[in-house]
Amino acid sequence: MTAQTVLQTPTLLIDRAKEAMQKAYAPYSHHYVGAALLSEDGRIWTGCNIENAAYSPSICAERTAIAKAVSEGARSFAAIAIVGGREGHITGSFPPCGVCRQVMAEFCCPDTFLVFLGTPTGFETHTLRELLPSGFFPSALQGD
Ligand code: THU
């Protein structure tokens, strides 16, 4: 399936994020999060949050997905779907944390990259620029 087809039907990506959420390892917060990252070539990379007894080594679902993709050679991304909630129950949108927004900024065009946030009844759509206004992007280091 092409990335364009998936973008026309974001529920496909939301459903993959929901599947990934089932894999969450969250014995401390009890909040399960799933992400599904769409690369420009149409591949979908999923991730869940993975917590740790020492807390700070924990990783968010979004960064799990991005790390999987980048470590397999993918660098160009079109969108990400994110769902989350206590014990996996989606009661509202589960927005990405600031660290995940910054990691998205490293690889994703802020004006075209779409962030779909799953809700109990559907999804919200944001651009990365909306979620990270006045952000620090790789372009800030150009011309050094
Ligand atoms: N979490 C994510 O997976 N993504 C985010 O962007 C926000 C927070 C996880 C981290 C932790 O395991 C749990 O949600 C509660 O903060």
Helix content range of the residues, please? 25-40%
* Main pleated-sheet profile: 5 strands, mixed
Q: Provide the structure class.
A: alpha+beta
Q: So what's the CATH class?
A: Alpha Beta
Helical segment tally? 5
CATH topology: Cytidine Deaminase, domain 2
**What is the total number of structural domains?**
1
Ligands in the structure? tetrahydrodeoxyuridine
> Mean pLDDT score, rounded?
97
N-to-C series of helices and strands: HHEEHEHEEH
Strand content: 15-25%
Q: Which oligomerization state do the chains in this entry correspond to?
A: single chain
Strand order in the sheet with the most strands: 2-1-3-4-5
Shape: globular
Query: End-to-end span in angstroms?
Result: 40 Å
Using the CA coordinates, give the radius of gyration: 15 Å
**What's the total number of strands?**
5
The CATH architecture can be named as: 3-Layer(aba) Sandwich
Low-confidence stretches: none
The CATH superfamily appears as Cytidine Deaminase, domain 2
What would you say this structure looks like, in words?
- With 144 residues, this protein is an alpha+beta fold.
- It has a single domain, classed as Cytidine Deaminase, domain 2 (3-Layer(aba) Sandwich).
- It is 30% helix and 24% strand.
- The protein has 5 helices and 5 strands; from the N terminus they run ααββαβαββα.
- A 5-stranded mixed β-sheet has the order 2-1-3-4-5.
- A hairpin with a 4-residue loop joins strand 4 (114-118) and strand 5.
- The longest helix has 12 residues, at 10-21.
- The radius of gyration is 15 Å and the shape is globular.
- It binds tetrahydrodeoxyuridine (THU).
- Tetrahydrodeoxyuridine binds at residues 26, 29, 31, 33, 49, 51, 58, 60-62, 96-97, 100.
